[in-house]
Amino acid sequence: MADLTIKPQGGPGNKLIIQDQAGNPRITTSDAGIDIPAVTGNFAAAGNVTSTGNLTVAGDIIPSSPLSHRNMIINGGMQVWQRATSSTAWAKGTFPYLTADRWLFAGHTSLDQYACTLSQGTVDGDALLEGHKYSFKVQTTTPETAAEAGEELHLRQIIEAQNLQHLAYGTASAKTTTLSFWVKSSVTGTFAFSIYQADGVRDIGATYTINSANTFEKKTITIAGDTGGTINNDNGQGLYLRWCLLAGADMKGTANSTWAAGADARFATGHTNTSFHTTDNATWEITGVQFEVGSNATPFEHRSYGDELLRCKRYYQRKQGGISNGQSNPSGVVYGIISYEEMRAAPTITSSGTLYWNDGGAQVPTTYNVAYWISTIGCSVGYTGTATVNRPMTVYSAVSGNNGLALVAEL
After folding, report:
1. How would DSSP label each residue in 362-399?
2. What pTM value is reported for the model?
C-alpha cells in the first residue's frame, strides 16, 4: 500500500482539518505545525510519547513501576564508607567488607600473586554530570601471572531476601528487571556480570564491554524474571549481584543467558578480558548502580546521605565516643547497655583501638570482654580492667578511624 498524502491548498492561513463523525475537528494543521485538541476520553499510545512543552494531567498518573524506592541496591552511589575509604587488607579466599558499605570484594583461594587496593575513587565525566561523586575503585598492585582454571575475582552486593518479594520469582508473574551502572577502567574489553539466587541455587549472566579506557561509560543489562526460582521471605540472602574481574577456564563456558541451576562454569561466561589482573596498577571503578523492576533503566534514584546511611546500618554500624553507660560489680568488671539502630539480625561485636571507662575521675583503659545478651536493637556487654566497685561508669573511645565497637550483621 502506497502512502496517502493530503495537503491544504497553498496560501497563508489554509489548514487541513480532519473531523470526527460529529463534525468536531480532531487534527488541525497550520503553518506552525499540528494542533491536537484535548482528549476527553481514553488515549492510548503504542510507542513512546515525547513532549517538548509542558504536560498537564488533571487526573492521576499511574506508573507501571514505582516513582520512588525503585532501586534495590543499597549504597549504589557509593556515598557511605563507615569502615574506611581505602584498604590493602584484602586477601585471596576471603569475602570481606572493607571499604564502601554493602560492597564486598571476593577472590578464589587458588590465586597465586594477585593483590590490590580497594579505595574511594573520584568520579568525573558524564557520571559526574549525573550527580555521582564517588566510585568503588579496585587497583591491581601485584598482578596475577595468568588465570588458572578455577580462579576468579569479583565485586558483589547481596540483597536481603525479604526486600525482593515484589519480583514474584517462582510464579508466572516473575518480574523483568534492569541493571544500570557507570563503569570506568584503565583497560578495555568484555567483562562478565551474573546474578546468583541463594535460595533457589540458580543463576543467570550477561556481559558488558568497556570501549574507552579511563572513561566512565554507562551500561545497562536487562534480566528476565525467574518463573522457576525461589526467594524466601526472610532476612537471609536473596540475590548476589556479581561483577567479574578475572575468570579462569572452569568459571566460564556454559551458556548462562537464561535462568538455570547454578554452576561454576556459568559464573562468568563471555568474560574475555585478561589485562586487568595481569597489568600492574590497572584500575576498575563502578558507581551509580541501580537494579529495578522493568525493561528499561530509569534515571538514578539519588537518596539523601542520611537515608542511605540508615539502610547501611541495618548491616553494619560502629559505636564510638560515648559507647555505653553501666555499673562496676564487686569483681571490678563494668557492665554496660548499648542501644543501636535496628539491625538485620543480632550482630557480632568486635572491638578495635583503645577503650576507656570513667567514673567521674581519671580515665582507665579497658577491654571489651563479652556480650551477655544481644538483640537486633541492643545488647548488654562486659568490659575488663581495674574499676572501683559499684560505681556508675561511662565507657568511651576515640571518635576517629576504627576505634570503638563494630556491630556486624552482614549477609
Report:
1. S-EEEEEEEEEEE-SSEEEEEEES---TT-EEEEEE-S
2. 0.87
| Exposed e or buried b per residue across 223-260, where buried means at least 16 C-beta atoms within 10 angstroms of its C-beta | bebbeebebeeebbbbbbbbbbbbbbebbbeeebeebe
Q: Which of 270, 287, 311 is the last residue of a domain?
A: 311
Tell me the C-alpha distance between 215 and 402, whole Å. Answer: 33
Q: Which of 189, 196, 131 is nearest to 161 (CA)?
A: 196
pLDDT tens profile 307-351 = 999 999 999 999 999 998 888 776 667 778 899 999 999 999 999
List pLDDT tens digits, range 239-280.
999 999 999 999 999 999 999 999 999 999 999 999 999 999
By three-state DSSP, how is residue 313 classified?
helix
156 and 291 belong to one structural domain? yes
pLDDT greater than 80 at residue 3: no
Say how far apart CA 47 and CA 56 lie, in whole Å: 20
Q: What is the pLDDT of residue 41?
A: 61
Using a 10 angstrom Cβ sphere, with 0-12 exposed, 13-18 middle and 19 or more buried, the burial of residue 149 is exposed
Residue span of the structural domain in which 400 resides = 314-408
Query: Residue 155, by phi and psi: left (phi above 0), alpha (psi -120 to 50) or beta?
Result: beta
Same domain, 181 and 238: yes
- The answer to the question of residue 48 being in a domain is no
Residues 231 and 111 placed together within one structural domain of the fold: yes
CA 16 – CA 110 distance, rounded (Å)? 75
Last residue of a domain, one of 311, 326, 349: 311
